[in-house]
Design a protein that fits this description.
Blueprint: E1 2-10, H1 27-39, E2 46-47, E3 56-66, H2 72-81, E4 87-95, E5 107-116, E6 129-131, H3 137-145, E7 149-152, E8 167-178, E9 181-188, H4 195-207, H5 215-222, E10 237-243, H6 255-263
Parallel strand pairs: 3-10, 5-6
Antiparallel strand pairs: 1-3, 1-4, 2-3, 5-9, 5-10, 7-8, 8-9
Amino acid sequence: MSRIALGLAYDGAPWKGWQTQPGGRTVQDTLESALASFLAQPVATLCAGRTDTGVHALEQVVHLDAPVERRVESWIRGLNALMPPSIRVQWAHPVAADFHARFSATSRSYAYVLRSHRVASPILHGKTGWTHHPLDLARMRAAAACLLGEHDFSAFRSSECQAASPVRCLERLDIAQSGDFFLFSFRANAFLHHMVRNLMGALVDVGKYGHPPEWMADLLAQRDRRRAPATFSPAGLYLVRAEYPARFGLPSRPFEQALDSHLGLRFVSNG
């Protein structure tokens, strides 16, 4: 057995999330079906972070234990030939036996792309979030500053979250604007279920003058999900990358480069 790490990009719109389900309409089910054909036997996969229905990935990291040897280029071309165009292997890399896509990751980064315009764009449907409200960038940045660091994020945790603890360390939350578009960049040691989408609901509320920026700190302190806004749309959410110790030698692009490469987005960051 040799352990292989794969970097996957996928359009989440056609899929019911990453994790396998009885109906089989998930990214994991589709990848494992392709692997079974490619390797002539079933293999299990583990990922860096599960994504929900409609959530996209620019570089989801997956590992598996391969029963046969294949060239790196064969992993990429062979698997891509067996999958629909909404899922593509970007790279393959042999890794040490102690590598684990989830537990070896030191942090994960997400981006949320939001369009603020009075009318939604049918061309961008499923690829960006949308609000018809004008948004104040400075107010949202002030609210975001309240969230940085280690906190109990119970106010932004799904009722279905299975994490043992609601405490997470949010290392980055930048917000940038380009015309009608806003880019929200998140990095944390790990995320709770629906955490980014729940944070988005609160940040947009502040941006449209629903609450003052300091309200975000109050939500954190109250630790009550019922006091925070509804979960925001999955359409604009992207798992950008997971970070790993250098000793594993995984290929990785900077956050901004990954966004530009896949989405053609260039923003001036505030961080």
